[in-house]
Amino acid sequence: MRDKAVQIFRKVLKSPLSLALLGCAAVVALAPAVPAEAGIRDMLNINEQPGVVPTKQESLLPPEFRPQPVYFRSNEPPGTIIINTDERFLYLVQSDNRAIRYGVGVGRDGFQWSGLLKISRKAEWPDWRPPAEMIQRQPYLPRFMAGGEGNPMGARALYLGDTIYRIHGTNQPQTIGHALSSGCFRMVNNDVMDLYERVPVGTKVIVRQQAKL
User: Which one of 19, 134, 145, 194 is most buried, by most CB atoms within 10 A?
Assistant: First the structure.
């Protein structure tokens, strides 16, 4: 089944229409496209796994999703966070058309959004209270889980405005680079801890979602 899905996905990538659409995309940063394997994994159903603690090897991301300085043209001031949901990248704007780029996991179809918010609160090893909608979809989830290594919220959380959305760590590093969350933005714990130290409460966060044709 998986091999058949890969063959179909490769045929789509080779079609003239797909190449035309890719050529018309307005990419500001010099960043690689999401790997073809991401498209395959996005079709999978990966539920939350409270209590699972990933190993160091499992938390090692592919090179393209590891934190790195990149060329990034933006009119936003240094310190601004820009998330591109289609690329699966979070950019922390620096001076001189530069940014620090991190790989992130984003919302699945029906849970993606775009907008402008600010970081309203920060927390270390946050507790987790799954919303009622998530519990309805995954009844096995606990109603409350204290912060820790096996907590799906991970090592740090940056709360976005007065919404339910957050930039947070994860105990599922395999989901980075894919669209599988309920609208929050996931990072591996080392990356979210690094970002946490770099940005204060009040930081502007811009979430961009590319228009679909």
Answer: 145
